[in-house]
Amino acid sequence: MRSLVVGQLASAVLLSFATLAVAAPFGNGSFESGTNPGSYTPLNTGDNSSITGWLVGGAPGNGIDYIGSLWQPSDGSRSIDLNGTNLNTNSSVGSISQTFDTVAGVQYQVQFDLSGNPYGGPATKTLTASAAANSQPFSYTIGANTLANMMWQSNTFNFIATGASTTLTFASTTLNSNFGPALDNVRVSAVTPEPASMALWLLAAGAVTVVARRRQRVAA
Q1: Domain containing 213: what range?
Q2: 162 near 104, Cβ under 8 Å?
Q3: Scanning 14, 15, 92, 170, which has the fewest C-beta atoms within 10 Å of its C-beta?
């Protein structure tokens, strides 16, 4: 009986590592699924249907621009400007968020591509990425960017999930402008433990098995 329990424990350990290697069920990171934005379409705060899986946030009257053919995307054919146009010019900062399944205690890595709307200032566009109480600022400074070459840059940040679901949010902090940070190609994946850490777990499981078997022989 004890051998069976220990065997189940060892199997659970192995299964946990297999689970860690699987990406979180996160979707539509390049914003390809949703209403056709044409060149671009302003989306208001509270919109949860125009971009599949994503919720537009920000103060009332704010929002984002859903970008289509206006400029070169990083991936696919669509992207986001986190500062909406035709909205509140004085405080047009918006946000976009998605809630997805996670495993509590597991570390995840978020990767995304960042650029900036080249139509107007400020030259440096800023945003904050946040998930599971972890928040990190990012910035992008316009250089030789053009609509045909947005010169996207890759960024990453990590968080440790605290529950069965996590909300990932990208929020502009570029104030008093309709020309904000551009976002595309968002990916989320679980961080696989280092081989050394995995070996320690397997050794520990093996040690538990050996001890249990010795105790079983002594008891017999």
Answers
A1: 1-21+193-220
A2: yes
A3: 15
